[in-house]
Amino acid sequence: AQKVTQAQTEISVVEKEDVTLDCVYETRDTTYYLFWYKQPPSGELVFLIRRNSFDEQNEISGRYSWNFQKSTSSFNFTITASQVVDSAVYFCALRGEYNFNKFYFGSGTKLNVKP
Amino acid sequence: EAQVTQNPRYLITVTGKKLTVTCSQNMNHEYMSWYRQDPGLGLRQIYYSMNVEVTDKGDVPEGYKVSRKEKRNFPLILESPSPNQTSLYFCASRPQGTGANVLTFGAGSRLTVL
User: What is the pLDDT of residues A2-37, one digit of tens each?
Assistant: First the structure.
């Protein structure tokens, strides 16, 4: 079975704080892909990052960084020095190679960044 | 501009009145899919299509129909809407090929069924 769990329903931080959004996944596929999407208050879904199961290197893009650990089946997302514009719902998603027509999303984490 | 276009963006309807949500993409993508987003449940796949005339059920297909007569269009049909279909709907597309390909989403269609 494929499953993505985002246990944090909602997080509130004050601007400039660092915040980590957790994502834990389950899959039996040896090859799979993990994604993060951002949904700002306007409602659209914006792609942030993709990672395949053979690439465990962490990635940094500006204030955003991602920590992929196969040993714990986690793909966590950290925002450094958060800003009000980071306020959004963030979704983690999984696609397995065996059935790559199905895309599994977590329930999302709502991040509130207060000035 | 490469995009997925959904219409209508907002709709209020009544139980049993058939409606269609259109979806069109201009990226020549083979794969298209519909999702619904509900609080606490994330996005759940309704139907997907791997190419023209090829469609398959996702995880929550009950009460929905789709068709793929042209590559660019993938309408979602609610033959007899019910209040439990009140939701935010997203259409998405991506190139066929590996699982690495990223989904591009439409702006969403908020449907209310009274």
Answer: 899 999 999 999 999 999 999 999 999 988 999 999
Cα–Cα separations (whole angstroms), residue A111 to A21, A29, A80, B98: 9, 30, 13, 31
Q: Using the structure block, give the residue that is written with the tokens 């985002």.
A: A6
Rounded to a whole number of angstroms, the distance between the first and last alpha carbons of chain A is: 41
Q: For residue A39, which of A105, A114, A115 has the smallest C-alpha distance?
A: A105
Inter-chain residue contact B42 with A108, CB threshold 8 Å: yes
Question: What is the per-residue pLDDT across A43-75, written as a single tens digit (0 to 9) for each?
Answer: 999 999 999 898 888 888 899 999 999 999 999
Q: Residue B40: which of A33, A43, A107 has the nearest Cβ?
A: A107
In B, what residues contact A, Cβ < 8 A?
Answer: 31, 33, 35, 40-45, 48, 50, 56, 58-59, 88, 90, 92, 98-100, 102-105, 107-108
Please name the amino acid found at residue A23: C
Report the chain A residue with the minimal C-alpha distance to residue B42: A107
Tokens of A105: 């999303």
